[in-house]
Amino acid sequence: MTKVEAATLEEAYELAASQLSCSVTELKCEVVQYPSKGILGLFSKKAIIVATVQPNLKESSDTLPLEENAAEYYSIEETVAEAILESVQHETQETESRTAVTSETDSIVEKFFDTDSGSETLSPEPEDEVQETVFEDRALAQSIEESLKHLMELSCFDIDVVEVDVVDNTALIFIDGEDAALLIGKEGYRYNALSYMLFNWLHSKYQLYIKLEIAEFLTTQQEMIRNYIQPVIENVQQYGKGKTRFLDGILVQIALEQLREAFPDKYVAIKTGKSGKKFVVINEFNTKRNG
Questions:
Q1: Domain boundaries, position 267
Q2: Which percentage of the chain shows pLDDT scores above 90?
């Protein structure tokens, strides 16, 4: 008997056969854990099986008539094939589930990019209500902070700083630690994934927007976008309109905020190209329609 871990069930079967010096068709396997790609690149799982060689298979196959031998062989093949098919179906169900979540999140992500709070003027709140709101925000920030610390403890990343503050309907989240760079990922892909996941959670549960800072990543990206949009600003000042190139993830939100700050009297919004990529447009009119 041997216990084997591998990226896929097929690889696990081959490794088990190699360790037990037999063919895959001679294995009797129990799947302990199905492989999973995880959620947004986090918490992936390997395939784990416990395998043994079916007793007296070789000896019995030598004494079986040709037709029975073939039937036994194909029965074993079918057993292995069924196990592989079950794994594929399991992975397919997980993929469909992730796709459904992604589809449902798309509309939420649009809200994530659309941070325009509207033009409605609110009357000043009484001092008692302001103090009560501040107290509630602190309690909410503490609750979110504890949940995020628990999430980081469950992850494979060494993160020792998690701080949350809630201000103006926005959760300001700061994360740092030895593995902060790994949590950001190459070109910020893990940062973007974590931002969407946290926004999905906090916006649906508490109606909060988020600003996520991991180490100095957000500050660096803001400075980079500030330098990039300077020619765009000059073009808008000269011609009255303009647009950015395609921007990924958090960069399009940063560009939106900075351009709205630069042109408070113009229409500044995120648009999606035919390829599905996003960019920011600036012009003199508002194409939003009521109703």
A1: 217-291
A2: 16
Residues 82 and 126 in one domain: no
Token pair for 202:
């906090």
State the DSSP string of the chain: -EEEEESSHHHHHHHHHHHTTS-GGGEEEEEEE--B--BTTBS-B-EEEEEEEPTTHHHHHHHS-HHHHHHHHHHHHHHHHHHHHHHHHHHHHHHHHHHHHHHHHHHHHHHHH-----SPPPPPPPHHHHHHHHHHHHHHHHHHHHHHHHHHHHSSS---EEEEEEETTEEEEEEESTTHHHHH-GGGHHHHHHHHHHHHHHHHHH--EEEEEETTHHHHHHHHHHHHTHHHHHHHHHHS-EE---B-THHHHHHHHHHHHH-TTSEEEEEE-TTS-EEEEEESS------
pLDDT tens track for 125-134: 566 555 666 7
Residues 68 and 122 in one domain: no
CA dihedral 58, 59, 64, 70 (to 10 degrees): 0
Listed residue (230, 232, 224) closest to 249, CA to CA: 224
In this predicted model, what pLDDT tens digit does every residue of 63-96 receive, in sequence order? 444 444 444 444 544 555 555 555 555 555 555 5
pTM: 0.47
Judge if 204 and 269 occupy the same domain: no
